[in-house]
Amino acid sequence: MSDCTATHVVRFASSFSFPVLCSMKNLIALVLLLGPLLALSQEITVKGDVVDAVRSKRLKSKIVYKSYPTGSISGTINDSTFTFQIFGSSKYQITAETEGYIPRTVIVDPREAVGNVISRDIQLTSLGQTIVLDHLIFELGKSVINPKSFPQLDEVVAMMKENTKVVVQLEGHTDNKGNAEANLKLSQQRVDAVKKYMTSKGINKDRVKTKAFGGTKPIATENTEEARAKNRRVEMRVLKD
């Protein structure tokens, strides 16, 4: 006995229809077929503000958005806030820059949408200050980068591709627990690993400097694991913009 017992018409995106034989096999095939097509028909609104990272005030900026990584769809907004629509499953990068601040790029993914909306503010840091790569994770006591860190590093890479004159310095820090010489070596190995990742994505090695500090520059002095975790970090300083 055939498992195809009935024929129905399936409609989607308000404008397409076709007959489908109903069965469990066909239902699974239908889901696999319609998934990408439905994604292509979905409109998502991306919105946010550009703000000072310390004072949280809005900053009028040049905001450039484009499909990632091809850049085939793009647009420019000159304001402190942005709103635009995206379609389908492509990621988009958004770069904000304004005088006196380090340019910043974020990458948004349609899968982040809640109710067909992605809200993402862009925080800009003043020139001369460092940006803590706070989503950068390493294996404990090693220089192996956790894959969860790749999205933030991809944003740094995208920013440097958008701003081709920018030269950065990666500064490695550990906590001050253990041997100071070993900590210095580990902090150097970690910034070297980040540089290697960035150059593998097309950034010229001469645009990425490195410097290691070990545990000599803590940002938290409490004798707690939380404080030590804050001190284990990589910071990025813009040397040339």
CATH domain fold name of the largest domain: 60s Ribosomal Protein L30, Chain: A
- The strand count comes to 14
Low-pLDDT residue intervals, each spanning 5 or more residues: 1-22
Q: Please, how many domains?
A: 3
**Series of secondary-structure elements, N-terminal to C-terminal:** EEHEEEEEEEEEHEHEHE
* Helical proportion, percent range: 10-25%
How would the global form be characterised? globular
Query: For the CA atoms, what is the radius of gyration?
Result: 23 Å
- Protein structure class: alpha+beta
Number of helices: 4
Per CATH, the superfamily of the largest domain is OmpA-like domain
Q: What is the CATH class of the largest domain?
A: Alpha Beta
Largest sheet: 4 strands, mixed
Portion in strands: 35-45%
CATH architectural grouping of the largest domain: 2-Layer Sandwich
Mean pLDDT: 86
Question: How far apart lie the N and C ends?
Answer: 71 Å
List the helices and strands and how they pair.
Elements (H helix, E strand, L loop, with lengths): L5 E7 L3 E7 L1 H18 L1 E10 L8 E8 L5 E6 L1 E7 L3 E7 L6 E5 L8 E3 L2 E3 L5 E3 L17 H13 L4 E7 L6 H21 L7 E7 L10 H7 L1 E8 L1
Parallel strand pairs: 3-9, 3-10, 12-13
Antiparallel strand pairs: 1-2, 3-6, 4-5, 4-7, 7-8, 11-14, 12-14
